Structure formats: structure tokens, C-alpha cells
């Protein structure tokens, strides 16, 4: 990543912020803060259903720097708004450190100090999201390496680390190592410092506190936090894992009593199939999440999507049913906040077809729509992910330092693997068709 930033005189920056604030005040949406009512969400007293996308890089585009692109951010948000997307899941964190394939710059530098450029980028992104009447899930860290994450916080605390996918440390060593975070008081202190700095922030563009911003849908503890990878590590870490979840949720609510709190867990896949761990982990969390990754979980084969489709369909439906059952038991909403499938032939090119991805999305959307129709706990979804107008800058489709054509595919993954491009007409039509069903089971006057 290019680390250079434009420098402004303090007076000029203040005038610029006042001008931007005035613009956003003129277009301030009337929508209220989302709340939970048992197994559904409400906004302004009306049912609110998630029709969402993942766009982790919004704050990077929002930064007024060489690595940012505010004009592109506006275009992408306009495209998503036109599709009918009402919720984005974005990163409000990234930790710089020694791990390979981690995005730079981060919200915090290697020494733990905050990077003002990205916080201001988040401010701008949230102002633009709110101006369009959309909402965002703000993710406060990551179990995985592509944004630094919990392993980087451990490195800051202990001086040691391991890389994901390192042949010297095969699976599940990275997961087992990262899960030591929950019992490390110093590493948790670094996490808490970023949490407090973010949750108590006043948006430099709008002048409004995040804690009162209706564009914030929920604060999310981390992306896919697991108690470990091996059964032994999960057992050892369970108590500390639950303590971290409970105490972090309590801290967020003390700082911001207005917004929802989510965990960001994949579901039973994060706990080696244990429903008991999912139930306990969400005891003090407002709603449940599930992530579904057939290729990553070996339900599908990239070179034989047709032959492995029956397994994909069977396992996906079973996974959704299991998590709907958990959510119903807990009387809490469920959001499938990540789901992804490769392009045909596992191609990364925007010109390749998406027949099997379309089939997978329809499978997910059909279950969401069935729940809408029946008043079930499954209240929405966020596809992974939005690539928009970005295109890979290299023939090998790999992200390289200095690139800033950000995609939904993070820097450790092939660029174009799971993300949807603005040119994916069939995918966009499919999403529009799902949006058109958003009022199933509700009154005719529904605007959810």
C-alpha cells in the first residue's frame, strides 16, 4: 500500500469538515436506529430485513489520501443503493504487523498508535452510507490474517506470531495460536483500546457521534472469531472465549447503549460442529450470524462444480436449518452475513460465467424468502462480496503491495475469486429479484 497522505493546514481542514457537515445535514435521513424485537429487527418501528453485501474496504476508499478514492466510493454506493442493498458489512479495524498478506495501511500502526487517515476514511464512508439511508455492520477486528487481526495483537503483546498457511505450521496451528488471544490480558487491552476509540468516536464529516448514528446497524466483535481449530484448543479456550465475548459486549453497551452488538461467528463451522458453543457464545449477543463457504469447506470442487453440486445443496440447506433452529430456540434473529461461491471453472476473470454462483445465491435467497414469508428467525443475508468496478491489476490475479483497486476478495485471496463485478449482469438481476421479495409476509404498505 502507498502510505503517503496529503497534508492540510489545520484551518483548511476545519473549513472542509464544516462544509461537508453542512452538506450531509441537508440530506440527513429520517431513519432511526435499528432495534431487536425478539426474532426480528425494527427500524422506525417497522420490520427491517437485511438485504446486504460485504464491502470490507469502504474506509480505505473513503480516505482522503493516495490510497483512497472517494469518487469511486460514491459510485459503488450508488450502484448498491440502486440494487436495493440496505446493509453493508465493513471493516472498522486493521492492525499493522509482520503477518504476510495483511492489508496496509491499517487503522493501527505496528506500535499500536492510531492512523488518522483511516479513521477519517471510515467517517467519510459512514457519512455517505447514512446519506443514502443505508446501514453498516462495523467489524472491530479479525480472526484471520488479511487485516492483521487478533494474531497481530498477540504479536504486539508477546513478540511472537505465526503466519496462516505456513507449511511449517499446518492447519489447525494458526487457529489454535490465534485463539490464545482470549486469555492474553495485554493483547485484549490493545483490542479494547481500539474498540473504545472507535465506539466513542465523533464523525469528523457529520459532527455526529457514532453512538447516535442511525447508519450504524451493529458493532461486531470480530470477523469469524473462533475458540480454536483443534478440539483440544477449543476445550482449553472455551472459558476465555466466552469471557471475551461477554465482557466486550458489556463494554460496547456501556459506551453505546443504542446499537446492536453482533459476534461475527461463522456458526457451528467455527466450533467443530458444536451447537452448544454457538448457543453459549451468543447468550449476550443481540443476533446470530452464519457464514457459508462450500468451496473452502470442501463441499464443492472448483473443477467439478456440477458433480459436487448435490453435496453443496444438501449441506447448505442442512447448515441453514441448523442455525435457524438455534436462532428460534434463542428467540433471536439470524443473518447469513457471508456466503460465497466461485465463478464457473473457478475462474477469476470478470468475463467468465457465473451459472453455479447464481444457483448458489438462489438457494440462499430462497431460504431467506421462505423465512420472510413464514415469519421465521432468518431475517436477511449479506453476499460476499462487492467488487464493483475494480479489476485485478496483475495477470496472476494476485494483490500486491501498492495496489489500491480494492475488491471484496481480500489481499490474501485471488482477486476475482468470490466478488461480484459491476459487469455481472445475471448476478445483479438475481439480487434485484430478491430485493423485490422483501415484503413477503408483511402488510401491503411494507417499505422494509
Automatic annotation (TrEMBL):
According to UniProt, the reaction catalysed is: Random hydrolysis of (1->4)-beta-D-mannosidic linkages in mannans, galactomannans and glucomannans
Keywords from UniProt, A to Z, are:
Glycosidase, Hydrolase, Signal
Q: Which InterPro entries match?
A: GH, Glyco_hydro_5, MAN-like
Q: Which Pfam families match?
A: GH5_mannosidase
**Can you say what this protein is called?**
mannan endo-1,4-beta-mannosidase
Which source organism does the UniProt entry give?
Qipengyuania algicida
Q: What is its EC number?
A: 3.2.1.78
Could you say which residues form the signal peptide? 1-22
Q: Which GO terms describe its molecular function?
A: mannan endo-1,4-beta-mannosidase activity
Its organism's taxonomic lineage begins at: Bacteria, Pseudomonadati, Pseudomonadota, Alphaproteobacteria, Sphingomonadales
Domain Glycoside hydrolase family per the UniProt entry, residue ranges: 35-436
Amino acid at each position: 500500500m502507498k502510505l503517503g497522505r496529503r497534508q492540510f493546514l489545520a484551518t483548511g481542514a476545519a473549513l472542509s469538515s464544516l462544509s461537508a457537515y453542512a452538506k450531509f445535514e441537508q440530506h440527513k435521513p429520517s431513519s432511526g436506529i435499528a432495534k431487536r424485537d425478539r426474532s426480528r429487527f425494527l427500524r422506525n418501528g417497522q420490520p427491517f430485513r437485511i438485504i446486504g453485501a460485504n464491502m470490507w474496504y469502504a474506509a480505505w476508499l473513503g480516505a482522503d489520501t493516495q490510497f483512497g478514492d472517494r469518487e469511486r466510493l460514491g459510485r459503488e454506493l450508488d450502484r448498491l443503493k440502486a440494487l436495493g442493498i440496505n446493509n453493508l458489512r465493513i471493516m472498522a479495524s486493521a492492525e499493522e504487523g509482520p503477518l504476510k498478506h495483511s492489508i496496509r495501511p491499517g487503522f493501527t500502526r505496528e506500535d499500536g498508535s492510531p492512523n488518522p487517515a483511516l479513521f477519517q476514511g471510515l467517517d467519510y464512508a459512514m457519512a455517505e452510507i447514512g446519506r443514502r439511508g443505508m446501514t453498516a455492520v462495523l467489524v472491530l477486528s479479525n480472526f484471520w490474517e488479511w487485516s492483521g487481526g487478533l494474531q497481530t495483537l498477540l504479536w504486539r503483546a508477546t513478540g511472537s506470531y505465526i503466519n496462516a498457511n505456513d507449511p511449517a505450521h499446518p492447519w489447525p496451528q494458526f487457529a489454535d495460536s490465534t485463539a490464545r488471544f482470549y486469555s492474553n490480558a495485554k493483547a485484549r487491552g490493545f483490542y479494547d483500546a481500539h474498540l473504545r476509540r472507535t465506539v466513542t468516536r465523533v464523525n469528523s464529516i457529520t459532527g455526529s457521534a457514532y453512538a447516535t448514528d442511525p447508519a450504524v446497524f451493529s458493532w461486531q466483535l470480530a470477523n469469524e472469531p473462533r475458540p480454536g481449530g483443534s478440539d483440544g484448543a477449543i476445550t482449553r479456550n472455551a472459558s476465555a472465549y466466552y469471557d471475551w465475548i461477554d465482557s466486550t459486549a458489556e463494554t460496547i453497551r456501556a459506551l453505546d447503549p443504542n446499537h446492536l452488538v453482533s459476534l461475527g461467528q461463522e456458526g457451528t463451522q467455527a466450533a467443530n460442529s458444536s451447537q452448544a458453543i454457538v448457543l453459549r457464545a451468543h447468550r449476550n449477543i443481540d443476533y446470530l450470524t452464519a457464514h457459508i463457504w462450500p468451496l473452502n469447506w470442501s463441499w464443492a470442487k472448483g473443477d467439478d462444480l456440477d458433480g459436487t453440486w448435490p453435496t453443496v445443496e444438501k449441506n447448505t440447506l442442512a447448515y441453514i436449518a441448523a442455525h435457524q433452529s438455534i436462532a428460534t430456540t434463542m428467540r433471536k434473529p439470524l443473518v447469513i452475513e457471508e456466503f460465497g461461491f466461485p465463478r464457473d471453472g473457478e475462474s477469476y476473470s470478470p468475463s467468465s460465467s457465473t451459472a453455479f454462483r447464481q444457483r448458489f445465491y438462489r438457494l440462499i435467497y430462497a431460504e431467506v424468502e421462505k423465512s420472510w414469508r413464514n415469519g421465521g428467525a432468518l431475517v436477511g443475508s449479506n453476499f460476499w462480496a462487492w467488487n464493483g468496478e475494480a479489476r485485478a491489476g496483475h495477470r496472476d490475479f494476485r494483490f500486491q503491495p501498492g495496489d489500491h483497486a480494492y475488491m471484496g476478495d481480500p489481499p490474501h485471496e485471488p482477486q476475482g475469486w468470490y466478488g461480484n463485478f459491476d459487469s455481472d449482469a445475471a448476478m445483479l438481476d438475481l439480487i434485484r429479484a430478491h430485493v423485490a421479495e422483501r415484503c413477503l409476509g408483511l402488510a401491503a404498505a411494507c417499505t422494509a
